[in-house]
Design brief:
Layout lengths: L5 E4 L14 H12 L3 E5 L9 H4 L5 E4 L4 E4 L2 E5 L4 H14 L2 E5 L4 E3 L1 H18 L16 E2 L10 E6 L4 H9 L3 E5 L8 E7 L4 H12 L6 E5 L5 H6 L2 E4 L5 H4 L4 E2 L7 H8 L6
Parallel strand pairs: 1-2, 1-12, 2-3, 7-8, 12-13, 13-14
Antiparallel strand pairs: 3-4, 4-5, 6-7, 6-9, 9-11, 10-11
Length: 281
């Protein structure tokens, strides 16, 4: 019996156009590939509870979430690696000491300080004032993102941290200060200025979770493809037989992939699936 092929898809900037729209061709490609016997997984930095319902409704065989800290196959949990409590305490202390706005993710939800919530809401208002499409009001993201109060989080269930900084050097400083224990990568929020980043435990990446999923399924990495547009996709590119960058990815990230497809607005997922024979063109 021939082993199934498997595809791992990033969400923001790959399936979802940063909170706005999903190309009809992407939905078609995922459903057609699954109907033909290919497995299709989400592979996202988002918490499982923070994935847009429109994305979930497409239908997937499983999901890698929180940048690799969690992974599921249907209802089966394959990976569940939250941060140790002392690691969470170190991150929160670092953010507080340096005045950095931050979010903490569990697998179920995203928690934020009041200041981070206010900054995000202000950014969303600014972003939407530029990008709102009067012809597609139903596709616009929520204007007031709902986060839970970080004071209520269980520190034993934190999977990942996200931070915002007005100073563009915040990311590189965090790498230098925290790189001994943590995996620090540039974030994918389309901020108008400053910087943002994601922090997980060292060794916890989309790639590490994909390796465990492939082992569980008995699938050779050569039979897998990974498609994404963000810096947390690098390890996915390295593990999968073919790593594919979206056309809207940064040029430096495209250079880390095996190939480049078209953008999220130009049927990037569909075109990649056709090219690799997961669906008929």
């Amino acid at each position: 019996m021939t082993a199934p092929r498997i595809a791992f898809l990033d969400v923001d900037g790959t399936i979802l156009d940063h909170g706005r729209t999903i190309a009809a061709s992407t939905i078609e490609a995922v459903r057609a590939a699954r109907a033909a016997g290919c497995l299709v997984f989400l592979s996202t930095g988002r918490a499982a509870g923070d994935i847009d319902p429109r994305v979930r409704a497409i239908g997937f065989d499983g999901a890698i979430t929180n940048g690799g800290a969690y992974a599921t196959l249907g209802d089966e949990v394959i990976v569940a690696d939250p941060m140790p409590r002392d690691a969470v305490e170190r991150l929160v202390g670092y953010f507080d000491e340096h005045g950095i706005l931050y979010f903490l993710q569990t697998d179920a939800a995203v928690y934020a300080t009041p200041e981070a919530q206010a900054a995000t809401a202000a950014f969303m208002e600014q972003w939407l004032s530029v990008h709102d499409d009067a012809d597609e009001p139903q596709t616009a993201p929520q204007r007031a993102p709902r986060f839970l109060d970080v004071a209520d989080i269980d520190p034993d269930h934190v999977a990942k941290a996200v931070f915002l900084g007005e100073d563009p050097a915040t990311l590189e400083r965090a790498r230098a200060d925290l790189g001994d224990r943590f995996h620090v990568v540039a974030g994918s929020m389309p901020l108008p200025g400053g910087t943002n980043g994601e922090i997980g435990m060292s060794g916890t990446t989309k790639g590490s979770a994909i390796e465990r999923v492939l082992e569980r399924l008995g699938i050779d990495p050569a039979d897998s493809i990974g498609i994404g547009d963000s810096w947390n996709d690098v390890e996915m590119f390295e593990v999968c037989g073919v790593g594919i960058a979206m056309g809207n990815a940064e040029d430096a990230l495209k250079a880390r992939a095996d190939e480049v497809t078209t953008s999220v607005r130009e049927d990037g997922v569909y075109n990649a699936f056709v090219r690799h024979g997961l669906v008929a063109g």
